[in-house]
């Protein structure tokens, strides 16, 4: 187990009756709010109206930034920073899913940087401070409500890049599973897959002695395997939505990587797919992950993959690690299929035309080969893309 | 799943090379330190000398409070508060195990209360603020380094009571598994049992829909079952000590009870044993827990206990919940026995003489019957004590 620092001070207010605490939580940190949201979904479920009412009843000044996209774009953050500057905003409230929160994070940090906020995403500008952020989560997928990460898309440069800073960890997050009842099957499934992928990126590593957190990872994966199908079958099953929502936060807030040497593998490969084709992130992950596992299956990795099959899918081990690992990977593919998502790139309109370019860019944006569960250079990424066609 | 709030902002610095960060972490919160510790163990392992050197090299003023007991006593906290007041102390550094940290918590909160700090423990005085606390952990058992709880013994009133406040959550904790290499077999075993008991107090509940955190609990229990014996066999096994130490924090920092209706059952029963007989807490828990489970085994609880056997001890289920639950309980007893700890009250010198009084006091100190996995009144506690003779 490697040395690590763990510090996650986001206050989580979880459940059906927590929204009432919004004004008092905001007032701990600020008084002039930028309310960030996406399309109309928060209006459809009545949340927008409830939030506005609470802000107005409590005389909290606010301005709005709406229309933040899935795969949030640099331009939205630039717009947000402008509103913040023009209105002396001192608190960012993100209401929505990970995209809205990720955009809010770049606004919060970008406010303190004079030049282009894209420099924060690329790492050229260092984040020294950020405006405080609060979130009201309406989609379980990215875990952005309890972590320091953000992913921003720059359509001009065709880049979708992740960045992070402890300064943009939300001060509080209100998580009501009921807000996710109206999330459609497509986004419910891709959210569950995203959560599982975050977990697997941490979980699949070699002999690091991190037994405890690997058992936590398996528990989290089992939760997704149990409740993903239930949430699709009955979108208003509270326990399903609640377990998925809470799993979502713990998949990526840092606990599951404590003590581990992890280097995320599938996420960087997928980011190129969504940057080029604007596909839903979780769908890209579902297509790539089993092919990545097949590709990296070798004498070093077979045992861990077979344990994954035993501890997550309750497969009986035969003692033949390769056979067991292959069955585990097949089970993962079957599970993704059961969620009704595509399993090939062709199904989402991706052909061979950009595979090589995307493979090169995966490594270029990483700045070096992927050093995770198995080492991957551009040629390996290309092979995984090809397996996924 | 019930509504809940989760907020644990302790910064964890985990690993072999973290002590160097002590001065900078202290300086974030204070400049005049009360250094709290117990007997000579921190001197034996050289930690005392290292800490003093760091404080002096960094010109950090300090006074010492030494001799804090296992089952820390009110008097030590009173002494500590006196030193704090006389020296304008603004930061409490606890170096040791849970007893030292628990005492530090009462000093930190008691400083702001004019009257007897015992009023904080009994709940008569409300904790409005507390001095900041940092810890350097040398024993994995109570989880006090990352939670808001403290247990204090008042020998005059024969009371050992728990209290808690978010104000006394440590600001940081330095956790080096190497510091626990010299913990002897008795305290290693009782620490592991304490960790398991914290987990089980949260885990054993009925149909609450908290699937995710129950899987986390099982992962934590499996970690204790795997590494407890390894740590006894080879006290310098880094991964064993590290996994136990990290499990220790997560057993009781609040995560495993999120969304659950829990009412701790075995801890209040055990606190009477240690208050009357000053036995090691973990040993008392080991004696009581399997008997508690046998006593509460009924048609409602059988399924959960049998799942515990399957998911923690990998027992195959027969389909007969009662039989499976009994096997699970036997397995737990066998595991405790394998750690070399006593399994009856008689072995630790406890006879029938105070059982009735302790049973009455268990409920009296709780203020009502125990409403956990199964309802327990004083007569039930007495039966469990008798089963444990």
From TrEMBL, chains A, B:
Ion transport listed as a keyword: no
Domain named Alcohol dehydrogenase iron-type/glycerol dehydrogenase GldA is located at 10-177
Question: Which key words tag this protein in UniProt?
Answer: Oxidoreductase
Domain Fe-containing alcohol dehydrogenase-like C-terminal, first and last residues per copy: 188-387
Query: Can you list the GO cellular component terms from the UniProt entry?
Result: cytosol
The record, for InterPro entries, names: ADH_Fe/GldA, ADH_Fe_C, ADH_Fe_CS, BDH-like
Q: Does the keyword Chaperone apply?
A: no
Q: Enumerate the Pfam families for this protein.
A: ADH_Fe_C, Fe-ADH
PANTHER family from the UniProt entry: ALCOHOL DEHYDROGENASE YQHD (PTHR43633:SF1)
Output this protein's name. Uncharacterized protein
Native organism = Anaerosphaera aminiphila DSM 21120
